[in-house]
Amino acid sequence: MFTEFSPPPVPMDSTEQIVQISPSCIETCPNCQTTLDLTGWPAFSDTNCPTCGHFFKACTNFNQFQITSLLGEGGMGSAYRAIDLNLGREVALKVLKMQESDIEGESKKMAHEARTTAQINHPNVVRIIDFGECRSQFYIAMELIGGGSLDDLMQERGVVPEITALEVGIQVAQGLKAAMEIGLIHRDIKPANILFADRGTVKIVDFGLAVVASDAATSPTEIWGTPYYVAPEKLDELPEDFRSDIYSLGGTLFHAMAGRPPYEADNASLVALKQLKSRPVSLQAFAPDVCNETAYVINRMMSKMPSKRYQSYDELIEHLRFALSKANEAQANPTAARTSELRILELEGREMRWINLVFPAVVILGLLVFAYLYFFTTTFKTLE
Question: What is the pTM of this model?
């Protein structure tokens, strides 16, 4: 016989009802073995057994995956650390939110994107392990990356060193190139979706999921993606392509190196955001110590017109690597760089000294010539 008790309240959005509950969730108290009907309880929620008072987590199983802890929550759902009971390994399990009115349709879209993303076999893209549906909730299991995100690093340091940011940019561009080759764009590149693995490897997460979420937008003015990094063509409801991801990556690297986003757009309206993004950006205005080559690459990546951005990932990666080489040279020999700057100033000083000496002489000579000609002309007229 089941023991039933009311689930905790689930907050609902004013415009839609999000599926966050776990229907038909039958659990056994690990302390007293009482069978509990937890239908309606959110996944991985705090539970007290009404019989013995034992505290435990409810509804932790999604098919063969058992949730062990919460990794984070976002607009698309919640991410958990879980164990694949079939293979005995840890995974990251993302349980996605869906509108209750279109569970079947959304599930089909998400399944399609998961299959597409799983085709990407690249060291800079998080690998999809499995996906499915359990208790009316769609989930995706992927490799677990334990090094934190670029967003975490930015929160910790404030400003990310130029060399680190460029190394991140190169690896992300390589992952985006691999995705583009199978016809997939990300559409939500941002610091939180760039993860650090072991040995300095960077991996992109949530490929393809942004496409589904964007299709589910409730109005044409709804912006999917972080306003700091979203490409201008998205705001104008124009077609997006890989150059839109290049823009978002540029905005991400700008934020990392400058310690602030390219535009202050937390509460900006769509109209205000369009106006902001019509202005050219200048990385060196907020990060004056970066190399000129780095500033050039970032500013070009963030051109308003897609035609003025990089037209291939190969060219972008080549320029990022060149900028990285210059940044490494400056770091390895800052004295030489400083000496070079002083040499330029010295040459400029010599030029100014030469001008200061020659210019007065030229003026005096001109006056003498003018006086001579005037005297000669006046004398000649007198003799006449």
Answer: 0.73
